[in-house]
Amino acid sequence: MCGISGILDATGALTPAELSGAAARMADQQVHRGPDDSGLWADPAGHLACSHRRLSILDLSPQGHQPMVSHCGRFVLCYNGEVYNHADLRVQIEAARAYSGRPAIAWRGHSDSEILLEALALWGPEEGLKRAAGMFALALWDTRERTLTLARDRLGEKPLHYAFSQGRLLFASELPGLTAAPGFTSRVDRAALALYLRLSCVPAPHCILQGVRKLPAGHLLTARVADLSGGDLPAPRAWWSLTETMESGLAKPFAGTEAEAQDILLGLLRQSVRGQMVADVPLGALLSGGIDSSLVAALMSQQAASSGGEQVRTFTIGYTDAAYDESAQAEAVARHLGCRHTTLVARPEDALALVPKLMRIAGEPFADASLLPTRLVAELTRGHVTVCLSGDGGDELFAGYNRHVHAPRLWARLAGLPVGLRGVAAGLLQSVSPRSWDRVFAALSPLLPKLGQQRLPGEKLHKLAQALPARVPPAYYAALVSAWPDPGLLVPGVSEAPWALRQPAGWPSARLCPQGSTAWMQYLDAAWYLPGDILTKVDRAAMSVGLESRAPYLDHRVAEFAWSLPESMRVRGGQGKQLLRGLLSRYLPPELWERPKMGFGVPLGDWLRGELKDWAQALIDPARLRREGHLEPGPVQKAWTEHQSGRFNRQYRLWPVLMFQSWLETAGISG
Questions:
Q1: What confidence tens digit (pLDDT) does each residue in 333-381 have?
Q2: Residue 358: count of CB within 10 angstroms of its CB
Q3: Hey, which CATH number is domain 2-240, 3.50.30.60, 3.40.50.1820, 3.40.47.10, 3.60.20.10?
């Protein structure tokens, strides 16, 4: 796991020394991503320099140093990530070279970087990437063709930003690396700001700064010096498609029994876990005690036992506040699996002290409040191991969110009701105080589908209120995931339509995936929420402390099989993740993990009325907002006043505003 950055100057105005200096300054902003080593390479013929910060995981020797030049001398790789099937890839490379009569490679070491580089050199970027199983963002320079290729992994685990202006193409893992380039200037992109206020993150290809883009997951961008010098930057193109993968699975659904599906999934997950447990540094797992992380820990323990390895180390963060503490459940799971478990207790003062630093960690506006506990557990875990496996991706691929389970049935019920009646119900929900949630929920129950044993918490009721008046499924989904349902009111000069209404041409077939269905909501979550929110959060939190996080569920072979599952193996009886539940029951008794989904939260609502009140008030002072000119003070102050009254919980609206203001302060952005 590393940080990459570089500059391609098609104008030829910068000397190799000047290019090297620019790339070095960009790397200096990403030291946290690679504290073990640094590297710099500039093409002697000019045009390009790239820099690398290394977190050493495989082949800790200098043989894994980057940027790395291919054995033929033609290609240079600057790479962030891990290729888990690198050993198999090496065998394929050696066989292909022998078959074509090429000389055998005298491998320098055993790093996945060297193997990936030779795969790209042998088969070309697109075919080489398709043969790789892993997470990565990379830059590949072809010294002969004077061509730079930027690429990102299939599901968006590793980040890559880029910008093109006046014949110069910049790229970096994180936004601060990009903005450190000499002469870089930019302003806040108002449309991206409105999108951020809705979604609490800025998903690819958008970025909070004008002229900056995020390379979408599963895409590559190929830039020739000759094209750039003419002012032409080609658009990114997909080398792997989430839509095509989903449609392929839905078109030919798995036709076997549920037990047979469990066996296939078990084989795929074992393969994924086995590959992701390869490391030359200490390794463990994050364990919440829920379905996803418990199954990963179980498979890791099984793999360790079969290979004669040490006990698997597992880590859980605990809180003194019982409402947010899952440590007892995680400890019970770890005991049953025979793991060497550590509970890391986070004190309230630790969390509060971290709040003003969050946007320095994120590097861009980011308002998923679970970044805070994720960063805490990452820091505590890093004191024991360098690599950790997690359960990320299980919810999106196997239907684990409440909206996957309940929202389709609710939409089917709402679609038959008059919009006016739904509007009245929405107004009632939006005006209700926390003390009346139970009573109002009971009054509205005839309108709602049965939710099994679950009862919607108050903040979910307010999200439901936003969704009730929706006329079409995209607006319904947008309301369910929106922090601000109408962010255009906050951003002067921007008319912002709900994000999910902007149906790109690449969306899945309505025949295979009807709008409003469980699969459709899973697709939307996998397309933007997973890479834009979940994986961004994990990447920034872990890399800020030099911890590598790996996600076995996000192996593309697991994902491809998951999309072929019939809905009954995803959602049944008011519960999601049916196949994972059945598989986990082979390893753990259900009473250890069968409980309502808690999430990974902190008591923000109370803090904004208490310990964080002064900090927040200073950031959203109306005079300050008017002076900066990014946000209208009126709606912000209304939300703040309502929250302080105690009648409403407006933390989900206030937090994106506060994090944006904090980012402005941290990044020194004024215009």
A1: 999 999 999 998 877 888 889 999 999 999 999 999 999 989 999 998 9
A2: 22
A3: 3.60.20.10
